[in-house]
Amino acid sequence: MGVYAVHSTTFDLLLMVALGIFGYILCKMDFPRSPLILGFVLGKMLEQNLRRALSISNGSMGILWESPISKILLVLAIAVLLVPPLWKRWRRKRVTLAAAE
């Protein structure tokens, strides 16, 4: 009712219903809510700062990984993505080898 009272458009009402259904489906599929909330909250700020960095560097993407801090953060981000599956595979292999002995 609040969404309809602000703009008095049915589009806002239908969008609210669609997003509610989408959220319900995500909850039923056990998707974590924290990354979505962080994405919504920090997404706009991230986009603004990316535009600012690219305008300072005249469109050069190299500014994103030139400093040592950004290189370290990039390596850590890659490690966060790669280590859990590799760790799981290593443990599974280790258990299989132990069971074979």
The H-and-E topology, N to C, reads as: HHHH
Number of helices: 4
- Segments where pLDDT lies below 50 for 5+ residues? none
CA-CA gap between termini: 66 Å
Give a quick account of the main beta sheet: strands, pairing sense, barrel closure. none
Beta-strand segment tally: 0
Strand content: under 5%
SSE class = mainly alpha
Principal-axes shape call: flat
Mean pLDDT: 87
Rg from alpha-carbon coordinates: 22 Å
How much helix is in the residues?
A: over 70%
Which characteristics define this entry?
about 100 residues, mainly alpha, 4 helices, flat
List the helices and strands and how they pair.
Elements: H1 2-7, H2 10-28, H3 34-56, H4 68-100
Please tell me about this protein's structure.
With 101 residues, the chain is an all-alpha fold. The protein has a domain at 65-101. Helix content is 80%, strand content 0%. The chain has 4 helices and no strands. It is flat.
Question: How do you describe this structure in short?
Answer:
This protein is mainly alpha-helical and 101 residues long. It contains four helices and no strands.
